[in-house]
């Protein structure tokens, strides 16, 4: 009977035990927060198991220390239950032992156990089980009792099972929390990445700094609090900080504020610029810097201050600053990293803007003088003309076209460096004479223009001309050379909104050429005579291409003869234009226009083709070898294509080598001597000879003779005209020079028997002139080759 009672009691105890465990299991499943879990377990253990206390300790990440997270107990007094030991090392006391070994213990009498450490209320027995998940100790559940041998195996079994359930739940909650944190971090990272990408795109898309900073600030608010935000640019050259963007209490101020060095040196921004390091300060740290004399208090002190310096160029740096006046919001290291990134984007945006401005400046200004270029001048003229519609009557504009006299001779004789310095000095002087509203531009070479807007009287132009003449009156010392500057000036006016910029420039240019033709330092105003001349030039320019396409040009051939025997050795091909409306047009009336417009290239190639065709015809007729020389522009010697163009003519007509040759005038000699030499050498296989016309009338004949592979010199007609009784010293010198350089010489413009007789007594090889023959059509010229002239 006793056995039945004991068995019944055991079954009842087991049932109660299972009920308790089932209740714990069911309740733990419904709880998702750790603090709720811990409080539930400690409360239920005390309540359901009849314990006087229960404490849960959780291990730290290093698994060296236990920290109390929940406790429950029956206090012997009315005061709330509390434990003394909130933190226990793994090697301290019974609790620490269980944590370090991962094994549960029941101690019937703690007084006999040296590991026991008494708490506020000493105990006699202790039950301690570990919280273990997958062999990792998460913590312990510790229960003490003032009665010896209070805890039973049943208690141990229940508490161990509860510990297993709680350990699994802790792991589940931690896993969920970790996942949530990971998702949160991923979302934050995506948001950060997207925001940073927005900023990067903005950096490369924004063209205006103000618009860029406004958009940047809007994007930044997604990253950090920026209710108080400023960007300042510091120019070291002038010691001024320009606050280019500022927001205070969320309100933007549109006014730029410039802080001079006197004011700036007392600010935190200046300290930041000098330190060249990001600065993150709380209120106390900010005050400490003030106490240390690094800067002074300017305005209201913030709770948190974050500033980052950045560099744009050698002389421009900047600062970006955010401030918080909210005691609950302080910036951190993450914010500093973000602001550093933003500062770099600002730096790049400003650098791009400065680079763009520099490119725009270079695109619209002359590199040597810094003046406006032709493109900018025309743009200013166009805008000036448009403004005439809104200006009072009686106002107009003037354009002064300047060409510096004898600049080419200075360039050729003293070198380009001296020439450049000469131009710079002249421009500086002239710039000091004009109004701030005037546009001073370099059009190219030694040609310049001054656009004067809103003129009310022509005396204003006359006064400007007098000022220019006055500043150029004294010689200039340029690199040790005393040089006299003077300029030929053409003036044209623009009076109504229907005028065109290109026409004003054209009119002033025409007036300048008129001034230049009358001598140095002259001024001419555009007039109707010049207008008619321009009209004629424009007509010729329009008709030139038509003339080429419709074979209106013809070559006449003037014989070149041996001075001694007077037999014909070749011809100079001279162009004639039979205009369908104007009749015969003199080369003097269209060659210079073709040269000016660039049409000379096509015209020369057309004439070379005509000459090649005629030479081929003479060769087919069995005529003896004759050399035909064609005048060409020096423009051809600026393009390597000229070699293939001449080769093509030789191949097209199967010309005898050396039968088609080239002549250039000294006044139009080549600027790029290296390229010109390559071109002439490229024609050497064809035995093409290069003849230099008008020798002795230019500025630098000897230099060209030494540097270019020239074969023939032509003595200018002006020297032949002076031959009286005997050769002049200058003609003798040219002949002597040609002999020493092994060059052939042609005397052109021989018109009298006396001139021929004098030349026959010299070393002159060949002659040309009306005395023997004028330029003739091909069929008449060829008849002169069979006998001496």
From TrEMBL:
Domain EAL: 537-789
Residue intervals of the GGDEF domain: 395-528
Residue ranges that the Swiss-Prot or TrEMBL entry lists as coiled coil: none
InterPro entries: Cyclic-di-GMP_PDE-like, EAL_dom, EAL_sf, GAF, GAF-like_dom_sf, GGDEF_dom, Nucleotide_cyclase, Rev_trsase/Diguanyl_cyclase
NCBIfam families (UniProt xref): GGDEF
Protein name per its UniProtKB record: EAL domain-containing protein
């Amino acid at each position: 009977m006793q056995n039945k009672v004991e068995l019944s009691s055991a079954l009842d105890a087991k049932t109660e035990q299972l009920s308790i465990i089932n209740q714990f299991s069911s309740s733990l499943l419904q709880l998702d927060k750790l603090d709720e879990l811990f409080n539930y377990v400690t409360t239920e253990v005390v309540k359901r198991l009849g314990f006087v206390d229960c404490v849960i300790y959780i291990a730290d990440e290093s698994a060296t220390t236990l920290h109390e997270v929940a406790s429950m107990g029956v206090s012997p007094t009315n005061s709330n239950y509390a434990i003394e030991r909130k933190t226990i090392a793994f090697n301290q006391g019974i609790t620490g032992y269980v944590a370090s070994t991962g094994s549960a213990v029941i101690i019937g009498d703690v007084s006999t156990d040296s590991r026991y450490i008494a708490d506020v209320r000493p105990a006699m027995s202790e039950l301690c089980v570990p919280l273990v998940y997958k062999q990792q100790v998460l913590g312990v559940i510790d229960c003490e009792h003032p009665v010896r041998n209070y805890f039973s195996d049943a208690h141990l079994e229940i508490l161990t099972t509860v510990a297993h359930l709680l350990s699994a739940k802790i792991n589940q909650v931690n896993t969920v929390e970790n996942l949530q944190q990971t998702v949160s971090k991923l979302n934050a990272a995506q948001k950060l990445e997207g925001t940073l990408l927005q900023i990067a795109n903005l950096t490369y898309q924004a063209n205006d700094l103000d618009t860029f900073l406004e958009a940047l600030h809007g994007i930044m608010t997604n990253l950090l609090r920026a209710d108080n935000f400023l960007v300042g640019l510091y120019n070291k050259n002038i010691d001024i900080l320009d606050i280019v963007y500022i927001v205070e209490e969320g309100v933007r101020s549109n006014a730029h504020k410039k802080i001079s060095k006197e004011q700036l040196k007392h600010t935190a921004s200046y300290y930041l610029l000098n330190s060249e390091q990001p600065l993150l300060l709380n209120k106390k740290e900010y005050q400490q810097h003030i106490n240390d004399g690094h800067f002074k208090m300017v305005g209201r002190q913030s709770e948190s201050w974050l500033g980052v310096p950045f560099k744009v160029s050698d002389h421009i740096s900047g600062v970006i600053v955010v401030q918080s006046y909210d005691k609950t919001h302080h910036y951190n290291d993450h914010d500093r990293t973000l602001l550093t990134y933003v500062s770099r984007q600002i730096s790049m945006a400003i650098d791009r803007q400065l680079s763009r401005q520099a490119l725009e400046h270079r695109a619209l200004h002359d590199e040597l003088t810094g003046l406006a270029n032709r493109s900018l001048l025309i743009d200013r003229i166009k805008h000036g003309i448009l403004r005439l519609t809104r200006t009072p009557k009686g106002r107009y504009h003037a354009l002064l076209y300047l060409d510096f006299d004898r600049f080419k001779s200075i360039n050729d004789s003293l070198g380009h460096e001296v020439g450049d310095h000469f131009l710079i000095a002249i421009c500086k002087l002239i710039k000091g004479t004009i109004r701030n509203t005037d546009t001073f531009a370099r059009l190219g070479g030694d040609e310049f223009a001054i656009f004067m807007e809103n003129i009310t009287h022509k005396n204003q132009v006359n006064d400007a001309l007098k000022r220019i003449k006055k500043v150029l009156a004294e010689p200039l010392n340029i690199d040790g050379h005393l040089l006299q500057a003077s300029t030929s000036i053409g003036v044209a006016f623009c009076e109504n909104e229907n005028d065109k910029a290109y026409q004003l420039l054209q009119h002033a240019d025409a007036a300048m050429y008129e001034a230049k033709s009358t001598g140095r330092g002259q001024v001419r105003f555009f007039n109707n005579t010049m207008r008619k001349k321009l009209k004629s030039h424009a007509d010729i320019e329009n008709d030139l291409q038509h003339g080429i396409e419709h074979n209106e040009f013809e070559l006449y051939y003037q014989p070149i003869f041996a001075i001694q025997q007077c037999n014909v050795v070749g011809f100079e091909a001279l162009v004639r234009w039979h205009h369908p409306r104007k009749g015969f047009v003199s080369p003097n009336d269209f060659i210079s226009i073709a040269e000016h417009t660039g049409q000379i290239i096509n015209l020369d190639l057309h004439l070379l083709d005509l000459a090649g065709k005629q030479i081929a015809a003479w060769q087919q007729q069995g005529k003896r070898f004759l050399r035909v020389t064609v005048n060409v522009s020096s423009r051809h010697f600026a393009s390597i294509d000229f070699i293939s163009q001449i080769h093509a003519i030789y191949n097209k007509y199967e010309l005898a080598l050396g039968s088609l040759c080239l002549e250039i005038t000294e006044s139009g000699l080549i600027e790029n001597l290296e390229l010109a030499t390559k071109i002439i050498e490229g024609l050497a296989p064809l035995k093409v000879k290069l003849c230099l016309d008008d020798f002795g009338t230019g500025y630098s004949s000897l230099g060209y003779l030494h540097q270019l592979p020239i074969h023939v010199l032509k003595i200018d007609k002006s020297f032949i005209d002076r031959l009286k009784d005997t050769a002049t010293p200058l003609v003798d010198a040219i002949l002597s020079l040609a002999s020493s350089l092994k060059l052939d010489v042609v005397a052109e413009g021989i018109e009298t028997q006396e001139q021929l007789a004098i030349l026959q007594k010299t070393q002159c090889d060949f002659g040309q002139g009306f005395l023997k023959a004028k330029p003739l059509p091909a069929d008449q010229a060829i008849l002169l080759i069979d006998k001496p002239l």
